[in-house]
Amino acid sequence: MENDKDSACLERAHVHSLEVLQKQSIPVLPESSRLEDARSTLLRNIPEHGLGIAQTTAHLLQDIAPALNASSLSPTYYGFVVGGVTPAARVADSLVSTYDQTPTIHLPDQTVASNVEDKALRLLMDLLRFDQSSWSGVFSTGATASNVLGLACGREYILNERIKSRLGPDSEERVGSLGLLQACRIAGVEGIDILTTMAHSSLFKASSILGLGRNCVHDVGTSDGCVTFDLQKLEQHLKSGHHNNASIVVISCGEVNTGFFATHNLADVQALRTLCDKYGAWLHVDGAFGLFTRILDGLPEFETVAQGARGLTLADSIAGDGHKLLNVPYDCGFFLCRHPSIAPQVFQNPNAAYLNTKNAATDMIQSALNVGIENSRRFRGLPVYATLTAYGRQGYADMLKRQVRFARAVAAYLFVHADFELLPSDIFRDRVRIDQDIFIIVLFKAKNEALNNTLAKRINASSKMYVSGTVWDNCPASRIAVSNWQVDPDRDINVVRTVLEDVLSACSKESSET
Description:
The structure is a single chain. By secondary structure, the chain is of the alpha/beta class. It folds into 3 domains: 4-98; 134-354, Type I PLP-dependent aspartate aminotransferase-like (Major domain) (Aspartate Aminotransferase, domain 2, 3-Layer(aba) Sandwich), CATH 3.40.640; 400-513, Alpha-Beta Complex (Aspartate Aminotransferase, domain 1). Helices cover 45% and strands 12% of the residues. It contains 17 helices and 12 strands. The strands form 2 sheets. A 7-stranded mixed beta sheet has the order 2-8-7-6-5-3-4, sandwiched between helices. Helix 4 (87-99) packs antiparallel against helix 14 (381-415), helix 5 runs parallel beside helix 14 (381-415) and helix 6 (143-167) runs parallel beside helix 8 (180-187). The radius of gyration is 25 Å and the shape is globular. It starts with a helix and ends with a helix. This is Pyridoxal-dependent decarboxylase. Belongs to the group II decarboxylase family.
């Protein structure tokens, strides 16, 4: 049990957290001196005798905490699609640390943790308008891990189907048992193609992890550099590789630099589904943040972006990110699949008797360790359950409306500005496209090349807002990603205007002095 000193340190940390949360304005980045000071205080070697909880608490609060950025705390941190943490999710997360459950093993006679995670996934599917009776899911560390899950299930499915076509429908040979190389040999497959458009880097990572290779990822987008599928090119790849290769088709539901969608309506997804069925391909969706437009379906103001996520119920699997637009703490992703028997073929834990729990006949909850990567992990589902319970469908719709409206306000400001260019410039030729196509990502550059080369760095140096530096059309660009639940369009647009005008003013002054 904790003694009085331990309790006092916990209370001190709690008070510190409350003070931070109650601040009206938080710099998005710590001062550089704070960073250097913090690094200098980090221990080089483990102490022979511990410092004790009191001294360690002081070290954490006085040295390390001031050198952390405000990525989740600040509504003006626009980097990497980093969501915040809703108050309800933060309350739940404190309980996660206190009770330290193991939700991957279903132990209905011992804890309600796995039941909570099951309900959290079902509430999430309800929010995103997926039929709970047709889909199963599991929590992951994030969209990258969920893409690994999706490609792994896809690899399992397409190779198993090829094996059955060769050995007969009753064949019990499976990739998960045979291994990739032997399964490919039996299936008569030389490789697996991943066909997509403007793929996120996580797809290349997932391909490498799964032994498919980064070179298996092929872009089958239209020639204009947009994220849209070229269906003729896609079918050519599927057809030409059908005899020697198997294929996984991946929909980019929210391209990382622009937020644009690979599909624009139900008919687009139906066309992809038809091709996948024709050539035996698996259809996966990388929906890290674009998937959440389904919350806005039916609202005329957001019709164009909402259509980008229509028809996704026709996919075989979907990757999503909770620590983005769901605004729950790191780390939290989720994976949804329309084929519940596939994941256990890949992730089942064999020969571990102590992990085999028998469910009651009426208890359909499966231990998450048999359908996901980890045997042990944090109780991710509790913050998800809490935040969905606290704010509901309407609360999340209101959050997303504010985020999209703010992104569009920033885009409109940049569109008419003499010194900035809204990207892609060939798309945004008129204001109408801004009000239709902008979701939560705003990509732009300075027209002055010298300024543009340092634009992101200058913006971030203000510590009033943060943007990601990126590249578009072989040119440096800056990217604003709006995803924090605290966004206030009227308040925050003034911050963006002030920072950008200050950057322009400073640059002009520097030029005149030289």
